[in-house]
Amino acid sequence: MRLAVLSSPESWYLRDLRRAGGSRCEIVALPFSRLSAGLGGATMTIAAGDVSLLDFDAVLVRTMPPGSLEQVVFRMDALSRLEAAGCVVLNPPRALEAAIDKYLALARLEAVGLPVPETWVGQNADEALVEFARLGGDVVVKPLFGGEGRGILRVSDEALALRAFKTLEQLDAVLYLQRFVPHEGFDLRLLVLGEQVLSMRRVSGGDWRTNISQGGRGERLEADAELVRMARLAAQTLGAPMAGVDIVADRRGNRYVLEVNAVPGWKALARTLDVDVASLVLDFVQSAVQSAVHSADRSRNA
């Protein structure tokens, strides 16, 4: 299998995939910044620099670097054309678009009956202050785009809240407020790979955040059937065959889906569970490629 990985060449995940892949697959790292596409000639082209993505069996998206609106839209469009040309893209571009946008993702999750924390999204600081009070005066302010706990702020003081909202408004940012869910010092991360689900508990490193990148630690977790159902449904709803699903339980045991990551990491999960997750990821990609080949063969013979 020839696998293109849209990733930084310095990425730990790229090194882990190459270690797990050994001689069974060729793994080539390519940057999003070199993505290009051509139309109107003898053949369609989709490339990263001078490397044609059409020559690979699959493309794995391992990063989602910041960019202008035009750049982000073009990247998704190019991946969509690549997928339409028969290349396996994981995760599919439509799943990436949905998961990156926290508001859109939560709206879709709620629409299928998954519980989500009470959330308000807007653009006006004064309106946000009214919602701050309605949400109990203790909220988590998140960037609409982003992950790993970056840019997240918990505010429970009205003056500080207004200052934060005014600053975001001046930056032309969207104000994303979520009622803080009091928990027992941990949340749950479930990694969905098709039908397979791996899970761990993420324990706070000293403050209210549980992200491993923010000082939390991983603990083994035997997920019950309801957690597995919630994780699979969340991933399926966003169209993400591979997904990291974050779930938190309040002190009464009520569970809420916080978000779905369509470019999920597995470093802490592999270490916590002592599982070669990179090998499982490659197995899953290879299975998706084989399914795509079989589908194409059936279509040709129909």
What report would you give on this structure?
This protein is α+β, with helices and mostly antiparallel strands and 302 residues long. It is 37% helix and 26% strand. It contains nine helices and 16 strands. It has helices spanning 12-21, 69-84, 93-100, 102-111, 125-134, 158-170, 225-237, 267-273, 277-301, and strands at residues 2-6, 26-30, 35-38, 45-48, 51-52, 58-61, 88-90, 119-122, 139-142, 153-155, 175-179, 186-193, 196-203, 217-220, 242-249, 255-261. The strands form four sheets. A five-stranded antiparallel β-sheet has the order 14-13-12-15-16, with helices on both faces. The protein starts with a strand and ends with a helix.
Summarize the structure.
This protein is of the alpha+beta class and 302 residues long. It is built from nine helices and 16 strands.
Instruction: Note the main sheet.
Output: 5 strands, antiparallel
Q: What structural class should be given to the helix and strand makeup?
A: alpha+beta
Number of helices: 9
β content, as a range? 25-35%
State the order of secondary-structure elements, H for helix, E for strand: EHEEEEEHEHHEHEEHEEEEHEEHH
Q: What's the average pLDDT?
A: 91
Instruction: State the total count of DSSP E strands.
Output: 16
C-alpha-based Rg, rounded: 20 Å
| Helix percent band | 25-40%
Globally, the shape reads globular
Task: State the distance separating the first and last CA atoms.
Answer: 26 Å
Biggest sheet, strands in spatial order? 14-13-12-15-16
Query: Stretches where pLDDT falls below 50 for ≥5 residues?
Result: none
